[in-house]
Every structure is written in C-alpha cells, then in structure tokens.
Amino acid sequence: MLNIDSIENGIVIDHITAGRGMRVYELLELDKLDTCVAIIKNAKSNKFGRKDIIKIEGVLNIDLDVLGFIDNNATVCTILNGRLVEKKKPTLPEKLVNIVSCKNPRCITSIEDVDQVFYLCDEKAHRYRCKYCEQEYKK
C-alpha cells in the first residue's frame, strides 16, 4: 500500500471524481507553485468507490470557482499545524472568467483580446453559455 504523509500546513482537495485530478491540477495552475504538491489518483473511497486527492503544502487558498466548475463534489480541507481548521464544499459558479474558451470561430473572443466569460444556464446539466455569442460550452 502506498503511504503519502500528512501535511502540516496547506490544503487537501479530497473527493475529486476519479480521473479529474489532473484537470484540477492544470486549471488551478498548481504547476506554477514552488511548493510540494501530491496527486493521488484512484484512491479507494467508501463513499464513491474511487477518488482523486490533491495535497498542497503551504498554500492556504485556492480558486473555489475553478474547482466548483470542474468537480463540485470535491471538498477543500484547510490544514494548520497538522489539524483540520476548515472544510469547504465548492458550488457551481454562476460566472466563469478566463477558465474555458469559446469554440465558436465567429465569436468576438476569437478575434478580439477580451475576457472569455461564460454564464451558468442549466445548473442540473452543468451547462454554460458564452456571454458574447451564446455558444454552449461542451466539456
């Protein structure tokens, strides 16, 4: 069995849907951090069967909108002095800014240097639409 040490100060993103851990890593830009980051893929979970986990040493905040967009089933645990001090559950954000790009070649975002803005249009189906052209974002 693989053993990953606990962290003293930082964040643990737990209950990430199995297979989505690397996407979380990319969109949160964790590769740009100058700190220890552990990604655990396909860990056993009593609740979900399998899950991914990310442990980030020394970082105490992350973009919950990005995490909520990728996987709103995840939990964010803040660890201080080896103890859990806060547990958050991200929600689907109403608005995404520069997280995903519009694929419509006729959209203003493909020719102008403007923010990529999407609004939540269907919470149950996790669907977003471009602010400028109404193109639906497809994962």
TrEMBL record:
Q: Where is the Aspartate carbamoyltransferase regulatory subunit C-terminal domain?
A: 96-138
Q: Where is the Aspartate carbamoyltransferase regulatory subunit N-terminal domain?
A: 2-89
Superkingdom per UniProt? Bacteria
**Which residue stretches, if any, does this entry annotate as coiled coil?**
none
Keywords on this record?
Answer: Metal-binding, Pyrimidine biosynthesis, Zinc
List the protein's name: Aspartate carbamoyltransferase regulatory subunit
